[in-house]
Amino acid sequence: MDFAVPDRALEIGARVEKFVREVVIPYEKDGRRDHHGAPLDEMVDEMREKARAAGVMTPHILPDGSHLTQVETAYVLIKSGLSPLGPLACNTMAPDEGNMYLLGHVGSPELKDKFLKQMVSGHARSAFFMTEPADWGGAGSDPSMMKTTCRKDGNHWVVNGKKTFITGADGAKVGIVMAASEEEDSKGGACMFLVDLPDPAIRIVDVPNTIDTSMPGSHATVEIENLRVPADQLLGQPGEGFKYAQVRLSPARLSHCMRWLGCCIRAQEIATDYACRREAFRKTLIDHEGVGFMLAQNKIDIQQAELMIYWCASVLDTGDLGTTESSISKVAVSEALMRIADNCVQVMGGTGVTDKTIVEQVYREVRAFRIYDGPTEVHKWSLAKKIKRQWRDAQAQDG
């Protein structure tokens, strides 16, 4: 595998890092937040205007509409993640980054012109409507349980159902809605639709407070009642929704790893600075093995996480969906980043659990990351099934 980062990505990444460190980080103390603690669109729009001026808006998508390779994207997105606000300012944040990737790969020229352009420019936030409420018996980590339905009605599709934990739904202008098809020609599969938001047929019923606070609009529960979608806003082919979900989710899991690694690198910088300045028992904290060893372990975990990300990125660049590799990377990196964030809090003691630095926020954000885009346990279960299947295949070949 070739993990070498090309010069163009090095140059883009350097500009992104400079912008995040010099322009974005001061916004971490900005009080323009909603009651959930998430940044208000007013603040996001202001940062994005500065990102456009600096030439770092949506840096992983080039002016001609082509994407950086996954290896190049990894380098750039890690730099954007040096602040929890960096991906918002540079338009590399979930769910928009994953939605742009999906639409870029599956969308028709007409859908790209209507929806993708405004997303790439950073003038529209988006939401991905897939997960459903557990008390409704709907789809979570198992999309085959999807109960939201769609059916044809003339030159429209009609969608009914419920969705939950829909990141950014409140305030989004573009939605990708996934529903199980009731049509025979869909062969029991699912469909995806592009919709303009807000739409009165999609009603937000709850926006709970959550442990993470980095994403505008938080994570809403919505009810969809007789949503009428023009037939030409069907994404791809009917019945192929589950396949398209994998087109989106495999690289999206890895993008999360990239961004949160950037945050943990920054948390390590802050904790290291604290440990090298703070004294206790007549020497600096880092000179106490209990503290110094935690920072040393963090350095090891950061390096391993980075290698894991570039390994998976190189697989995706071969054209493989990389579902196995993305599952391995999601588990390994999310668990490593949790150790890093926890160690940074511990090194800083009381200061580490305050909002004096972004360390405590990084801890909260990474804790949530261990759940979304598939909890650790779901990925391990999936990997175990593949291990068993490979064993059976080997036994069959041996006769």
UniProtKB/TrEMBL annotation:
GO terms for molecular function: acyl-CoA dehydrogenase activity; flavin adenine dinucleotide binding. InterPro entries: Acyl-CoA_dehydrogenase, Acyl-CoA_Oxase/DH_mid-dom, Acyl-CoA_Oxase/DH_mid-dom_sf, AcylCo_DH-like_C, AcylCo_DH/oxidase_C, AcylCoA_DH/ox_N, AcylCoA_DH/ox_N_sf, AcylCoA_DH/oxidase_NM_dom_sf. Keywords: FAD, Flavoprotein, Oxidoreductase. The keyword Flavoprotein applies. One of its GO terms (cellular component) is cytoplasm. One of its GO terms (biological process) is fatty acid beta-oxidation using acyl-CoA dehydrogenase. Its cofactor is FAD. Belongs to the acyl-CoA dehydrogenase family. This is Acyl-CoA dehydrogenase. The lineage of its organism: Bacteria, Pseudomonadati, Pseudomonadota, Alphaproteobacteria, Sphingomonadales.
